[in-house]
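Review box. Two proteins, two foldings.
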Amino acid sequence: MEIKIKVPASMSNLGAGFDTFGLAVNLYNIFDIKSSKDFSVKFVDLEIKDEENLFLKVFYRCIELFKKEKLPLEITIKTEIPFSRGLGSSSSAIIGAIKAFDAIYDKKLEHDDIFKIAYEFEPHPDNLVPALMGGFNVCLKDEEQTFFNTIDFPKELKIIAIIPHINILTEQARKILPKSIDIKDAIYNIQRSNLLVSSLINKRFELLKEAVQDKLHQPYRKSLIPFYENIELLAYENGAKAVFISGSGSTVGVFCLENEEIIGKTCTEFLKSKGVESTYKILSVDEEGASLWKS
């Protein structure tokens, strides 16, 4: 038996769509599974202890839930998605583990079954949905069900990830958020999140700069990202249509129609001049989500 699973990264929130918008992009965690004499999980070019391995935790939870025997398998994980950078690495690992279990034990899990397990490890749908489904998603969950719509993302828009080499844990980024908000701020975000969706659908790209403004999380989280406001300004000066914090950060997301290399180089060179190492990636939308090959 040989199984290969590929699960994309994701950019979430996109400004005003806090815990709601998720965009799958073409960075991947790749899981290769084959029959072996013993059970083992290893990473390519990484050393991660079993007790810190999220894939393994989720896979073992699936075995426990469905009362299955652990089979002799060799699982090799190649990670393209950097950890703790706001690009959905945890959701990719979670979905990868559930899809691996599903394929190995031929469970044929429905989407709601997958999300129910996933929420034990990641309570928010905005990274899980794009990791599973691909594309640009508007999503929510209630006590019983996950609701989402996948919307065509304009092919004209280029996607840039400016990635400072700084880890920001989701728990850390949530602790600094206020426990309550003013109704004016709620209205502010509702208006702009709707504007973002309609701007993408109607290709009114000149509206995106306003549509990614936010009062719920970015004003607080930008303090965790060195020189965020400088990066934002540089990106807009070089033609960006939208600049936002991806997930909890530290990645800064940029949408543009042109100058993607110029924007990426300008922002990373500026950060380097300030003593902050970073990289940039020109990305595209992953429209497949978690994909699987079995032989």
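Next protein.
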Amino acid sequence: MAGMDMHIRGNRSQMDRAGSVKDLASELLALKKASGSSFVQLSEKTHYAKSSWERWVNGKQFPPRDAVERLARLCGTDPAPLLALWAEEDARRAAPGAGAGAEAEAGAELEAGAGAETGTEAEPGAEAEAGAASRRRRVLWASVVLAVLLAAGAISYAALSGSGEPSAAPRPKPAVKVAGPATGCTLTHCEGRDPKKMNCGADAVTVRTGSIPKDLVIELRYSRACQAAWGRISFAQVGATVVVNNSDGAAQADVVHFDRDVYTPLIAAPDDGSVWVCAALPKNGARSCTGRFIPSEEKAQQP
């Protein structure tokens, strides 16, 4: 693995100059080859789909930050150079003027990942969708601020040109707020509904995880915009179940009927309550739960 560190450091100057998806992809491909892992093995070790890894290392899509870090740590190398290159490309894609290209690529990523949603809410790499939404919000923010500044300049010019008297002191400009993603429900109105159809996945994050050896992965997904949560299991057997619960006594469940993953309907996740997910193997097999998630405590810890 020391050889892979030297490879990353030796190409760092090229990373700083290029800052592109192809440069990042070439570094990811070099790590994959050096590790000797196949796409199937990467999928099993990181819980991202093998088709996603194929697109990322071949430069067909921009990977999520977590996937880049996981690959570096899996290969025993310092993730900092790769994450620096990822951050440069992410900033480039979010910059004004690069919005159209980033939007087109983001649309391609969403289209490529849409098939996974038919049997599950999203594959574990769906945080890429949240990253694309975040970039769109930053572009929207820049456009709104620019529009406000132009409007204020036009008003000031009209006032000065229409009167010889000194103009009054300018009024404070109102703060511009960009709304979060439009959702179809909040809190108890979400209960029993599909998180994808309600657009709760737009800002969703995995807040708690668990597992049942040796493969089954348990995730608690939370959307602040919807104030709701749901459970998801991956790499499960047919017949495995997943149940999401909250402290108000509500619960939503689903079972794997085919494929290897499934997600539950939504459940309310109020700020002062708690939510958690449990999963069980088929035929009264092993059972495990995630820790409890309390939204208000998480908000208090944020800067």
